[in-house]
């Protein structure tokens, strides 16, 4: 968790120690976040010490690490050290976060020094350095297209946002008092804290994202698409290196940790938010054509990545929540998504989310029919005549809470100590 002080126990069976036991060398380039990062300690213009974080990550079973664990130079990680060696640390500064002025900043350095460009560079170097070294596992983790929307101008120049699909909005949507993110759109009421809106409110006039105009959204989305293009280019370079060095003797899994509202519903970012824009993300698996493709329409979850990787490598499975996407029987298709104070269950055509905004003493329940209302405008949770789909997803939600004991682990009080204070 990035919010609550819980780090991953080094004794857990993770992809790193399991593959190391199987004879693999573990290489990592980019963003880790396997432990809560100290967002509360960051300040504009400050680069925070990070050596003990790097030591912790290496202790999980990583053999070679290039660490870029934040946006820009929030932390004095491997990327910040490179920037510092070029005399650019002050210029890069702290472009984003609760103490910044803007979230669509100009990138202050040469294109090749953008953090996502460097993650790809180092991943390519790791692949090239692995030739003849035996079984190798590489994890490349890009910060982008996560905000700040700091794509270099050369990438912004490639984007014509007028050709993009329009933002998905509905007039009057946020007049519905049953919808949690009315706080993100209309702004705070009384003493509301930031943990009940998306990060886009941190930069909006009166903390209300309804105050962003069309010009702002065009500029924001242009930068987001440009940053995605930069990442896409980096992924292409990594795959080209894999082809050169490993030929057809490698497998690749592509996915992400979350999406972004990106102007849909007139919101941006992802915190405290479970719309499909945030949680419905791509997952693609390539194994050199050795197996018949699986049904891409099936629902999957991040917890499926670990067992899928082991299955691709022909290694014994490990007891865990997920299952291999290559398995013929993938269960009933129920998917669980959770973050601090929020739980979503998707079952059949319906999706149910409970937002427990403890900081303001409010709870919201939202239910959507993803077939009839794929963009989630109409909350069915409080309609007097519940249909069978709504009743089924309520039952599935209750069953998930009971089977996984999630009532006590998701809707907890935030007060646990970070590992580095113990």
Overview of the structural elements:
By secondary structure, the protein is an alpha/beta fold. The protein has helices spanning 15-21, 51-59, 78-85, 89-92, 115-129, 153-156, 182-186, 214-246, 276-279, 305-312, 388-404, and strands at residues 25-30, 64-67, 136-141, 252-254, 284-286, 335-339, 342-347, 350-357, 362-369. A four-stranded antiparallel sheet has the order 6-7-8-9. A three-stranded parallel sheet has the order 2-1-3, sandwiched between helices. α5 (115-129) packs parallel to α8 (214-246). Residues 96-100 and 412-422 have low confidence and may be disordered.
State the main characteristics.
422 residues, alpha/beta, four-stranded antiparallel β-sheet, three-stranded parallel β-sheet, 11 helices, 9 strands, 27% helix, disordered C terminus
Please outline what is shown here:
By secondary structure, the chain is an alpha/beta fold. The C terminus is likely disordered.
Low-confidence stretches are 96-100, 412-422
Q: What is the number of helices?
A: 11
Give the CA-based shape: globular
Helix content: 25-40%
The computed structural class is: alpha/beta
Give the SSE map.
Layout: H1 15-21, E1 25-30, H2 51-59, E2 64-67, H3 78-85, H4 89-92, H5 115-129, E3 136-141, H6 153-156, H7 182-186, H8 214-246, E4 252-254, H9 276-279, E5 284-286, H10 305-312, E6 335-339, E7 342-347, E8 350-357, E9 362-369, H11 388-404
Parallel strand pairs: 1-2, 1-3
Antiparallel strand pairs: 4-5, 6-7, 7-8, 8-9
Helix pairs in contact: 5-8
